[in-house]
Amino acid sequence: MTTVEEALKGIESRLPNPAKLVPELGQVSGALAAVAGNGSVPRTTIGLVQLRVGQIFGSTYLVLLHSGNLREAGEAEERIAAVASWQDSPHFTDSERVALALAEAVFTPNPGGQRVPDALYTEASIHYDDKALATLIMAIGQVAFYVPLAVIGQPVPGVPFPVQWR
């Protein structure tokens, strides 16, 4: 049987470590992380949203990264696995559901209407005060910031991002 480390041996990302190529990336990344981690939204909720965005974009790298982060934070395997089908899962609170719905609305085309309908925004504002809602919106933006690097650069799953990226 092959271990993950053996399977990844010799595999390289398309793009060398972007933080070495563009040092300012570390500053931007750090600032985004500070916004998302300001404490107004539970870290678990942000992690669930990040995982869902990775799933929406079909990025194995982001899915493994955010699943691992949730595990390290003590999140239950049932909840991590259920993120892909959160709409019909009993594992999430109402506030987590609205956060996941916001992320999906932003990244899922809606040809006939608004990406984020007024009803969804109103629901979110019931669960989150203005600071928390702004934080959640920026956390969704934070993971979107990494999507092009993950999808285009194809970092190797299991290799920390972005500092250790090849």
UniProtKB/TrEMBL annotation:
InterPro entries: AhpD-like, CMD-like. Residues 33-105 form the Carboxymuconolactone decarboxylase-like domain. PANTHER family: 4-CARBOXYMUCONOLACTONE DECARBOXYLASE FAMILY PROTEIN (AFU_ORTHOLOGUE AFUA_6G11590), CYTOPLASMIC PROTEIN. This is Carboxymuconolactone decarboxylase family protein. It comes from Actinomadura fibrosa. The lineage of its organism: Bacteria, Bacillati, Actinomycetota, Actinomycetes, Streptosporangiales.
